Amino acid sequence: MIGARVFCISTTARQRSSIFFFPKIPTRPVFRLLSPATKSIVAMSTTSKSQEELDSIFKQKRLVRSTVRKSLKAMDPSLRTQQDESIQNTVLEAPWFKSCKRLCAYISCKSLNEVDTSKILSEILQHPDSNTQKKLYVPWVEDKNSNMRMLHISHMEDLIANSMNILEPAPVDAQGNEREDVLQADEPIDLFILPGLAFDRCGRRLGRGGGYYDTFLKRYQDRAKEKDWRYPLMVALSYSPQILEDGSIPVTPNDVLIDALVTPSGVVPITPRAIESM
């Protein structure tokens, strides 16, 4: 769940050959108790010090992104196809997916080397009138300032290519009606299927640097608190080269943690809630 405490799970089935190692990075400053005489000096230096620490974290993030992008680009196409199939089948067969009624999911982009979601989306949208019907919301990028909305779609034909050739819904449907925004919906979301560039088994997620998902998820957190809703299950999809050593992904207070990770080898539950439901 958003803002949840994360417990690192020791997984004996890990395949170390598929995990990338980076030096563990401290991301939270340690403060000592200060005497009154020094408090004023520290107050003047705290802002610049905090900014220096954030700059260091952002620099480390750029380094990790660069390394993972190279690994993804070097993936064998047949291996990528195999992992796409395995990951999507795991999601489609999972009880937590089958039981969800409303979900937000990303639309995969091949040029970004994201785990494919086309099979998952097609499965959802092919059964609009069945007992297994799910209400699906997908991303629509509002501007270049990290503002993104999740809009309801009913058919794959609702998607159009934007200026970056990424599929997304038009804000208005064919009849001229505005699409339902998940932040204005009357019912809570059960599940988020999230993309990312790198992950670890402690729930850390590294995005591509735009801040769109973290910003949106914070807004949904506020909406859920306002409505007293249970937080949705946060599940990310990951190729094997995207899984890094625990603690090697630098984080800031604005980064949202995930509950579980779906890999080519299966599901990695992280939070107590995910362990209970998976």
Plain-language structure description:
The chain has 278 residues and is of the alpha/beta class. It is 32% helix and 16% strand. It has helices at 36-73, 77-93, 95-98, 118-125, 212-227, 272-277, and strands at residues 102-105, 135-141, 148-153, 159-161, 167-169, 191-194, 198-199, 205-206, 233-237, 260-263, 266-269. It has a seven-stranded mixed sheet. It has a two-stranded antiparallel sheet with strand order 4-5. The longest helix has 38 residues, at 36-73. It is globular. It comes from Arabidopsis suecica (Swedish thale-cress).
Supply the number of helical segments.
Answer: 6
* Biggest sheet features: 7 strands, mixed
Strand order across the largest sheet: 3-2-1-6-9-10-11
Fraction in beta strands: 15-25%
C-alpha Rg (nearest Å): 20 Å
The end-to-end distance, rounded to whole angstroms, is 14 Å
Low-confidence stretches: 1-7, 9-46
**Shape verdict:** globular
Write the element-wise H/E pattern from the N-terminal end onward: HHHEHEEEEEEEHEEEH
Number of strands: 11
User: Can you give the helix content as a percent range?
Assistant: 25-40%
| Protein structure class | alpha/beta
Mean pLDDT: 84
Task: For this entry, give a set of tags.
disordered N terminus; metal-binding; 16% strand; 6 helices; 278 residues; ATP binding; 32% helix; metal ion binding; globular; alpha/beta; nucleotide-binding; two-stranded antiparallel sheet; 5-formyltetrahydrofolate cyclo-ligase
